[in-house]
């Protein structure tokens, strides 16, 4: 299958692209590289350096490569940054995502896997969270993910675009030579490793009033390989 991977030079996108290639799919990576890395592009993928803010280039990509399915990772994803600059988040995660959906409709592409987030649930009343739990995001980042999920529902109704949204928590780990490399780094495990290696002097854990034995937070993690495989399985089972 010819698969367009938006944000394919990022952490999750690059690992997913590598697994797609190993599964004999043709992979076209679309990334503007401000937060992704050229070095993370897997060998064998077609790379287009572009921005989802450019609808002409998006549509051209669909036409020239005869895209059959989209896996959509491209987004900005720092919660604190979204609170400080919500406009930047709505432009990137909603408006640019809408450009992608428009191009799909115009080029008769009917399948998309969306890299959503458990942030759409906000503060859930029940743990573990059910998929059907109310979506009440508490920050602009989670809000943009919920809005795009709503857009997917409407584009399915109007144009028959089938979708699966994966709402996951924190991702960790590496696959082959690919791993976390955020700039600035904000993720817990890389920060711990940087401190252990002497690249950072101190490591801070925030929060001391959680309902846990020592008051610090407990987080769920999913390994990057498992998450990437989940995207492949979703693509194979979408209808």
TrEMBL record:
Q: What class of enzyme is it?
A: isomerase
EC number(s) recorded for this UniProt protein: 5.1.3.2
Q: Which UniProt keywords apply?
A: Carbohydrate metabolism, Isomerase, NAD
NAD keyword on record: yes
Q: Which SUPFAM superfamilies match?
A: NAD(P)-binding Rossmann-fold domains (SSF51735)
Residues spanning the signal sequence = none
Q: InterPro entries of this UniProt entry? A: Epimerase_deHydtase, NAD(P)-bd_dom_sf, UDP_G4E
Task: Report the catalytic activity.
Answer: UDP-alpha-D-glucose = UDP-alpha-D-galactose
* UniProt keyword annotation of Isomerase present: yes
User: Which coenzymes or cofactors are required?
Assistant: NAD(+)
Official protein name in the record: UDP-glucose 4-epimerase
- Report the gene name: galE
């Amino acid at each position: 299958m010819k698969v367009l991977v938006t944000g394919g030079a990022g952490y999750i996108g690059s690992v997913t692209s590598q697994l797609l290639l190993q599964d004999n799919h043709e992979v076209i990576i679309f990334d503007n590289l401000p937060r992704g890395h050229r070095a993370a592009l897997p060998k064998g993928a077609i790379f287009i350096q572009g921005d989802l803010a450019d609808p002409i280039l998006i549509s051209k990509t669909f036409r020239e490569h005869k895209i059959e399915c989209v896996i959509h990772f491209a987004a900005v994803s720092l919660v604190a940054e979204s609170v400080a600059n919500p406009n930047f988040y709505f432009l990137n995660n909603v408006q640019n995502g809408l450009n992608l959906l428009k191009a799909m409709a115009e080029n008769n592409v009917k399948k998309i896997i969306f890299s959503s987030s458990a942030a759409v649930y906000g503060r859930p009343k029940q743990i573990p969270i059910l998929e059907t739990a109310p979506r009440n995001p508490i920050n602009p980042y989670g809000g943009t993910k919920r809005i795009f999920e709503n857009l997917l529902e409407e584009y399915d109704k109007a144009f028959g675009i089938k979708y699966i949204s994966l709402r996951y928590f924190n991702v960790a780990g590496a696959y082959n030579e690919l791993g976390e490399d955020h700039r600035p780094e904000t993720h817990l495990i890389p920060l711990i490793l940087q401190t252990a290696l002497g690249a950072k002097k101190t490591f801070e854990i925030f929060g001391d009033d959680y309902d846990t034995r020592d008051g610090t937070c407990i987080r769920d993690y999913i390994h990057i390989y498992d998450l990437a495989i989940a995207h492949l399985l979703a693509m194979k089972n979408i209808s």
